[in-house]
Amino acid sequence: MTKDKSIFIKNIYYMLSYAFQTLNQENYDDVAVESFDEMYDLLAAILARGIGIQLKQGLYREYINRQEELPVMRGKINMPETIKNRLVRKQLLTCDYDELSENNLLNQIIKTAVMLLLRNAKVKAEYKDDLKKKMLFFSDVDKLEPTSIRWSSIRFQRNNQTYRMLISICQLIIEGMLITTDAGEYRLASFVDEQRMCRLYEKFILEYYSKHFPELSVSASQIPWSVDDGIRTMLPVMQSDIHLQKGNTVLIIDAKYYSHTTQTQYDKHTLHSNNMYQIFTYVKNRDYEFGDEDHKVSGMLLYAKTDEEIQPDNVYQMHGNQITVRTLDLNKPFSDIAKQLNTIAETHFDLPERSKV
């Protein structure tokens, strides 16, 4: 996918910075100026810095239930177990009590991700040493079976909001880069898979427009089905990646991250059919919402550019709507990436040219 690995990894950092605004804080400035040759090193550096910041604030603790045999009462006496003790002449009380502990799910996830990085041969020693020092503060925290983590069950509240970005980075490491060896051990794969990269790619573009184009309404909104009788039972949700709007002008962008931007059959290159059907459906249903009002609704498939010789660059006029297919070159300096994104919005919404990012 990449011609210049270091440039691409540098841009991954910028993409993460937009996806997680925490990375824009001055605490991460020196991470931004480092040169990374491996994705692992970038993730290790970000994780080490984030853990360091969290340690200064204090690790998140929550109450966990414990049962222990004690000479004096603590919490509540567990009568059945205490009676058993007496029957065997043990002069101990079995007590159930709650204790504030750092050994909770959030800290366990962090430790599990760090252990994976430490076992990876491609992570540089300097990042491993930094992470090992941080893990001294996690001595009472258990590791998890990586595949057992139920990410959807994680809930953030006021006391652990600072963990949100850290856990997202850990998820990228654990879920996106995890494979199993023949021996049943876990190690990191050579690169993040397409699904996770696509999610990051989408989030980056959405947050980029949200930050740099305040005059636009930027969202990842759902588009209702245009039905004649109002019945939408069992119809699938139409969830757009990026929905840009100014007045009655709309641009719906579907961000796609594939190893191949086109499909090939009998040496003939065509666009991914499902992608075209999807963006066309989004556009037509969104267009229907405006009714007789004067409006403009367009769609765009924005692929991450690959090294393939043939890259899509097409504009189609379909039933009164414009559908564009473009590529975004992530192997360019970030200023060039920003210029590509700016041009898309400036051209579509007739906006003045942005200053350099």
Automatic annotation (TrEMBL):
Keywords for this protein: Endonuclease, Hydrolase, Nuclease
Any one biological process term the GO annotation gives: DNA restriction-modification system
GO molecular function, one term: endonuclease activity
Alphabetized Pfam families for the sequence: McrBC
EC numbers for this chain: 3.1.21.-
NCBIfam families: PRK09736.1
Protein name: 5-methylcytosine-specific restriction endonuclease system specificity protein McrC
Gene source species: Simiaoa sunii
Name of the gene this protein is made from: mcrC
